[in-house]
Design brief:
The protein is an all-alpha fold. The protein is 75% helix and 0% strand.
Length: 458
Amino acid sequence: MERNLKNVLVIAFGFLLLFTAYGGLQSLQSSLNSEEGLGVASLSVLYAALIVSSMFLPPILIKKLGCKWTIAGSMCCYIAFSLGNFYASWYTLIPTSVILGLGGAPLWSAKCTYLTIAGNSYAEKAGKIGKDIINQYFGVFFLIFQSSGIWGNLISSLILSQSSNKVEISEEDLECCGAYDCVSNTTNTTALAEPSKSLVYTLLGVYTASGVLAVLLIIIFLDQIKSDQAETEKEIQKTPSFWSTFLATFQHLKDKRQCLLIPLTMYSGFEQGFLAGDYTKTYVTCALGIHYVGYVMICFSAVNSLCSLLFGKISQFTGRKFLFALATVTNTSCIIALLLWKPHFNQLVVFFIFPALWGLSDAIWQTQTNGLYGVLFEKHTEAAFANYRLWESCGFVIAFGYSTTLRVYIKLYILLAVLTLSMVTYGVVEYLEAKRSPGTPAASEKENKGPRTQETFM
């Protein structure tokens, strides 16, 4: 096997093991640690720490430790979060959430840097175009990585379904589910019945072991990037200081196109935050039980993964405007339906239709928004994708932050308002691009090297 491809597979399976654990835990936070809103508060703190981390830690750690050891060290931060859940309290979960958030940005940046360097290195030896090899490597990575949502949620559902705490859900309890929820104002012990401690510990033990295996896989099998290879990359050769990275991120806001894309980027965080923090709790856990959360999120992950691959391929034929329109119509329809629907355990199929449609639209938001950033700001990818991570994380922080204080129907109206604003400002960006450079470089990909900080590369 070609050595660079072997390293790509090692990183991909390492991330698969790591996010099998983290993805499953994130889906369960609002239901498993619902007391005083601890679960969603920890997620809000996590993404706030991720914002701080993304501003300065990645270039510093990659320069000091190299890509391999930055990846391994950052993975340990995720394991700390799993350990914090063994005794979930404000004194354990919040600090470990901060640790995970600080490790998140270096992990993704080091991964993107490693794949980019490996792709360019192989392309140079094989006499091929760097961009093509990088796209292939990222395609292999995400093909394997995206399935983590399936395995993590499958593990949680299989383990939690063994619970003996299941109670029959009454019609009175169901009145407290859905958009006009009253779970926070009632003792709805049926819907939010917690599984036994032994089952929770078993689940957390499996997740922790999965994270440890990921670290060992990286340490043992991943080759360190050679110094001469790293020096061929400007990002590594001239590692920016904290202040230069910090200032470059905000100086990029002088570009009005970046300012106009802020609502769209934040919406990505809002809509993912709603699904993970609110839909799983006030619809699924409330009406079906916590053991169904995993199955529902498997549906989301599977559709999201397949559609990411599909839309990445057909976008060259349909164009991004059509796909953004499709995502807008799909999300708007789901939001309106969720406002009107009263969840009932007899309507089992409906619980899976919503995450499937949400997965379809999220695939578009992820692939096309990342692609839009890459095309519009191809000469300033570092600052552009730093802004992408910054504003998407802000969306997560806000969504998880107000999760315990606002009722679900208000959150749905907020989602609808942000989506509407996003499409208006996105339309202005497309108008400016059409007016400014019809059929010129802004609409094409000229660079042979992919953006190294891009989290979803299709």
